[in-house]
Protein 1
Amino acid sequence: MPSFKSKLRKIVYDIPGAKKMCRRVNSFFDRDPDFTGWGMTTYTFPPWHEGGGGEITKSFMKTNQQIVNEVMAGKFKLSQFEKEGNEKDVLDSLMWRHYIVYWTAWHASKSTKSIAKNLVECGVCDGLSSSFAMHAVSEKHEFKSFLYDAWEGIKSEYLLESEKASAGCYSYLCVENTKNNLSKFSENIIFNKGFIPDSFEKSNNPTDIVWLHIDLNASLPTKSALEFFYERIHPGGIVLFDDYAWHGQLDTKVVVDEFFSDKSGGLLPMPTGQAIYFKL
């Protein structure tokens, strides 16, 4: 007599396409994942599979290897990950995140009409994300990069009650370390040190930009950065968020969703926890 399990399998397999789907799902779990890192595991080819197929991916791979070499040689100091152990493993786990940083900067530079491409990053840390973005743009465009960070511990007055646990985080940061890490782009960078939004009043701010990266780990400064820079973004430009879908950062997601609720562009959440806004 057929078991209940075999009867159920027959019913499921009678559904159009179900047998093929079940085989594909089973094949996923019979092998190692293609990528694991930054909060996700995937069983599909990443863009850089076998060296990558397109120009942007090949360029990203070249940049990624260059940065890995600099980190391993001690020329690019990742103070954020000093306690993580093997820095190569950390960078490998960040590849999907960095690919999105690279891709969005590349796309924003190509889809906007300005001759010079101004980039902005709010929340710079050691300059790792900025390095990928500047590499993406520098190959084909003139650019300036405006970097905003306190380069000291987060102060509680910039946090909601639900975010107070983050007070004091990033106290290990040093702007001089970031400058050293990004020294190859020194002529293209404007460093603006201070807490957002207060620092905007005394900073060297761009009048127009093509790419904005916000990684502030706090909702109120995120909202302030959006309000300050949004109208300066060229049509075709991009806003990239690092903290959009991370547990513990729900207030940031709420702020972002509310800000774009009446905007005509599109917000695309990513499985990396990031989100991309395309400005029409």
Note: The chain has two domains: 1-31, 35-278.
Protein 2
Amino acid sequence: MKSKILVTGGAGYIGSHTVVSLLESGHEVIIFDNLINSKKSVLKNIAAVSGREAEFIEGDVLDAPLLMEVFEKNNISAVLHFAGLKAVGDSMINPLSYYENNVSGTITLLKAMEANNVFTLVFSSSATVYGDAKVMPISELSPLSKPTNPYGNSKLVVEDILRDIQQADERWKVAILRYFNPIGAHKSGQLGEHPNGRPNNLLPLLSKVAIGHLPEILVYGSDHATPDGTGIRDYIHVSDLANGHLRALDKITRTGGIEEWNLGTGIGYSVLEVIAAFEEVTKQKIPYRFSSKRPGDVAECWSDPSKASRDLDWTANLNLKDMVRDTWRWQTNCPTGYPDL
């Protein structure tokens, strides 16, 4: 029986792009997803883009019996763990849901892995674990501090759990990947970000306005301590991010232990700069107006990705215009996203 990679949350935005990269690299893949923020129809697009199919199991990481069954019936060699809730603003309103899904769900997954002697894990973390960092850029040596929102705190709690279990049992091989701001879409225009309901992230919102599904975009905060008053973020193309997961999986499989890597470009762009780039690339005018800052948002956040470059031989190759161009191609090719099945 061939070994397989289990990808929790593999039907989601980042997960689906990473599944394509895994399939193109020759891996056998099982997607495990509860479809609360994704569509099953993405499976056809994954197969069309990669030329191979992933196995799909609908399930929740809180479902311990189902997870045990998945591990018992399959020869799983490693897990890429994307499953979880991810909206900063929503986490301020519904913190218990974030701790239940992101923390309890991960614990349930880790127990199933341990019971079935699977100890290789790539964990989807976030730059929010650095809290409101005072020094830019942020490296892995930057202090971890109290995140400004429950989403970020849930990621930091899981990171602590992973460090503790690896210290207790050296069989664990763990890669912690701290994302900055993933945007963009697959170059084919067949895979992209398709949140259920109104998007929370900047590029999907810009696309919805440009295509006429929304009247305008709200810019949260015009008085941040930044050059133009709007928040600055490090935006990374989702395909670069997916490639980073394969590099991290290969590295941690070979070396063992536990390591953390920032995945970003090392360049910060303000909200207004992203809007300007979107207008330039798409030739679409974007109406926007300023609103008050959102609770939990920080003024600026961008990465020092040099550790990933050294350890993983990985760098982000696609720039902001590439990210916008691929997002717009996805939006125009699939204006309503993935269809319901």
Note: The mean pLDDT is 95.
